[in-house]
Amino acid sequence: MDLIIGAGISGLSYAAATSHDYLIVEAEEQIGGYCKTIYKDGFVWDYSGHFFHFQHPELRDYVMQHISPNEMFTVQKHTQILYKDRHVDFPFQMNIHQLEQQEFIDCLYDLFTIPEGAPSDTFKQMLYAKFGRGIAEKFLIPYNTKLYATDLDRLDVDAMGRFFPYADREQIVRNFRHPEGKSYNATFLYPKQGCIRIVNSVASHVDKDRVSLGERILFVDPVSHTAVTNRHTLHYDRLVSTIPLPKLFDVCNQPYDKEVYTWNKVLVFNLGFDAKGPERTNCWMYIPENKYLFYRVGFYDNIIPQDRMSLYVEIGFAKDQPVGDIDTLLQRTLDDLHIAGIVTDQHLVAEHHVIMDPAYVHITRRSEADKEAKMQLLEQSDIYSIGRYGAWKYCSLEDNMHDAFTLAERLK
Cys staple from 107: which of 1, 4, 96, 148, with CB 3.0 to 4.6 Å? Predict the structure, then answer.
């Protein structure tokens, strides 16, 4: 039997694809992991913004087997940066010509006078070496510091993988007159019922009698292939885990250096207002300045067309940083939304919040090396760790599905 820990998109995808007998144990009382959807007072909110790009057509076809086309919106992505009360198109480095003239000149000068051989061993060093001081310090460093809630010198140069919008000098200059408007997710799909609709589509391929909700893994013995939960002692042939990798080490009694694995946590406010706001085009907006509490604001009402403003607002915290009083943070968030001009005379009529912990993992050279070594050891005991947190990486929901299907094929 394959014992699968976690009924998020990764665990469900593996169960749907495996040819083995299986049991999924899920600590929560609902499937979906972070891909849950909240319905409140006519608003549709996810735990945070989950949008589907489907780089693999076969995965799109798989998901859409049980979803009719009229259940999905196809959205042309439009995103901007709120920078010094000016809206600059994303990505910043491709659109510096939209800045005030002197700032544009500063960015352009720094871009073309980067010292040859500038160090690029860390994420922060890479930003300076690739884009120069102006672009790095005006947007890339402050925004990503708010996002990751850590010193960017701690992160690996490739911490964001393909999701970082690289651009060379020629592309940047060419974009001044001929905007490319291209990115890895220029369009995306979003279900009218929220991201849980995607989860439910995958789950339709899973035997619901083999999903045990409210069952939490307490201990795993890799030698005897035994797992102890809050309900049972289970014997397995293979264990497929989607829980955060350090947590898997803990339940397997696998020693590891806790300083190697760090992450941030994110407080997400979902906010519904009584009327439409002034922002009518952006899907989401990046906020680099520290005078604002949040680093990103998303506009559900520009994705699911509606006549009331519906937002998700994300605030980053360091792993060990207390979040504090939620009511106080909500009021500060509302105040900042007014200062930013995102909210004007609209009134809040519904709200929801969730703390995602972990949210973004900190990928470093040490964590990558340690992860690879320890995952190889676990696989020798028929334990496999997948998913965004199980594989300890920056990836999309589609990547998680792809990795789960790939593992199922490998273990046939």
Answer: 96
| CA nearest neighbour of 137 among 124, 151, 123 | 124
pLDDT of residue 220: 98
Domain boundaries, the chain: 2-49+193-259+364-410, 97-177, 264-356
Q: Is-above-0.85 flag for pTM?
A: yes
Amino acid at 266: V
Token pair in block for residue 234: 């289970």
Q: Which of 240, 195, 244 is nearest to 15 (CA)?
A: 240
CB 150 within 8 A of CB 262: yes
Note the pLDDT of residue 107.
Answer: 97
pLDDT value of residue 181: 53
Long-range CB pairs of 367-376, under 8 A, 24+ apart, other chains included: 367/156, 367/260, 367/261, 367/262, 367/392, 368/156, 370/256, 370/257, 370/260, 370/261, 371/245, 374/245, 374/249, 374/254, 374/256, 375/245
Assign domain 97-177 to a CATH class. Answer: mainly alpha
- The rounded average pLDDT for each run of 10 residues, N- to C-terminus, in the chain (412 residues) is 98 97 98 96 93 87 90 93 96 96 97 92 96 97 97 94 85 84 72 95 97 98 98 97 98 93 97 97 97 98 95 97 97 98 98 97 94 95 98 94 97 92
Please name the fold of domain 264-356.
Polyamine Oxidase; Chain A, domain 2 (3.90.660)
Is the dihedral angle over the CA atoms 209, 13, 360, 273 positive or is it negative? negative
CB under 8 Å to 300, separation ≥6 — which residues? Answer: 43, 44, 45, 306, 310, 311, 312
Two tokens, residue 318: 């360091």
User: Cα torsion for 393, 74, 346, 90, to the nearest 10°?
Assistant: 50
Output the six-digit token pair for 197.
């609709």
Note the CATH architecture for domain 2-49+193-259+364-410: 3-Layer(bba) Sandwich (3.50)
pLDDT recorded at residue 52: 86
Say if CB 33 and CB 7 are below 8 A apart: yes
- AA identity, residue 373: A
What is the pLDDT at residue 163? Answer: 82
What's the pLDDT at 179?
78
Whether 264-356 and 97-177 are alike in CATH topology: the answer is no
Model pLDDT, residue 34: 95
